[in-house]
Amino acid sequence: MKYISVILTGFGNVGHSLVNILNSKKNVIAGQYKLDIRITAVIGSRYAIIEEQGIDLQRLSNCDKHSKGIQQYGKCLYEIVNSKDLLEKLEADVLIEASPTNIETGEPGFSHIYTAISKGMDVVVLSKGALVQHSKEIQEFAHLKGARVKMSGATAAALPTIDLAQYNLAGNDIYKIQGILNGTTNYILTRMHKKNISFTEALQEAQEEGIAEANPKLDIGGFDTASKLLILANTIWGTSLRLKDVALEGIENITREDVAAAVRDDKTIKLVGEAVRESYGVRLRVVPIVLENSNILTRADYKDKAVVFYTDLMGTMAVVGGASDPKAAAAAALKDVINLFR
Predict the structure, then answer these.
(1) In this structure, are 117 and 173 located in the same domain?
(2) Both 167 and 313 in a single domain?
(3) Is 194 annotated as a binding residue?
(4) Model's pTM, two decimal places?
(5) Residue 280: predicted pLDDT
(6) 253 labeled part of a ligand binding site
(7) Would you say 9 and 92 are in contact if contact means Cβ atoms under 8 Å apart?
(8) 123 and 190 assigned to the same domain
């Protein structure tokens, strides 16, 4: 049995889901993979729990999320002045970075990731901001320090994007990537197509169902899709592209009439992220596209996502599906930890 110590930064929806999964899957992970994964620290924005022998996951899973839940745990509790300074004092095999993401600054995730790598930890990244702003820097620093970085949960949660490219398509020249990478926008567009309702009505429905945020700008404006596309492109091709390099158009201006016209022509409108490697560099765009219904991307409806890789040796490879919720993102992080140490 291999013992794996984990520091978790961030105890929101995804971090809490990860604790639940590790608690419920402990025996399966031990039996199938011979791994004893123990969270030895949970670091939130105001408080942290630190237990060198492993936090009681059953106890923590019964607590609320965020700082309130960390306080409810009720023992081994520390008040935080600076999460990076605290992380510098701790030791573990792997950091799981699940802090709230900021795609403009990359913080606090970047500081957490950089500190963990400097201490020789492997890192599993769930928050997108640090990868959007500092992808190449993180990869180069990890290589220098002999650390490994995994990011399945930051690139479409349950949908296997990075793994498909790096493992299943190893040795191929991937020259184009297309994807439906945001479940919220796909849900809204699907409702518009299937129920003949307006964008405003579909968005309101998504908010009432808890699918869309109260402020859905990052999703409907295409920024979330652009962030995931950027991470994929920079990771697969080793580029240093930024959000400003993505030609961006969201779905806010799609009308009921636009959808009706597409349906009459046996077509479907989808918000598509596309990265193409050209002779002069990489071209990135996120834009609503009217697709023929024979296109595999149209198979992704509601909260499903999809990715298509175009290669020189294996042809076109696609994956469709994958849950779009905190549990799915947490499961992607667990997958990354298992694949690091199995």
Answers:
(1) no
(2) yes
(3) no
(4) 0.94
(5) 87
(6) no
(7) no
(8) no
Catalytic residue of the set 228, 267, 270, 303: 228
The domain that holds 288 is classified in CATH as 3.30.360.10
Task: For residue 13, say whether it is annotated as part of any ligand binding site.
Answer: yes
Provide the domain limits for residue 25: 2-157+327-341
Name the domain count of the chain. Answer: 2
Q: What is the pLDDT of residue 212?
A: 85
128-147 residue pLDDT tens: 999 999 999 999 999 999 99
Q: Which residues lie closer than 8 Å to 175 by C-beta, 6 or more apart?
A: 276, 277, 310, 311, 312
**Would the pLDDT of 324 be above 80?**
no
Q: What is the pLDDT of residue 279?
A: 87
Rounded Cα gap, residues 25 and 129, in angstroms = 29
75 included as an active-site residue: no
Residues 310 and 336 both lie in one domain = no
In CATH, what number is assigned to the domain containing residue 11? 3.40.50.720
Tell me: is residue 27 an annotated ligand-binding position: no
| Residue 214 confidence (pLDDT) above 80 | no
106 is in an annotated binding site: no
Buried b (16+ CB within 10 A) or exposed e, 256-266: eeebeebbeee
pLDDT tens profile 150-159? 999 998 888 9
Indicate the residue type of 289.
I
Based on the domain organization, do 316 and 209 belong to the same domain?
A: yes
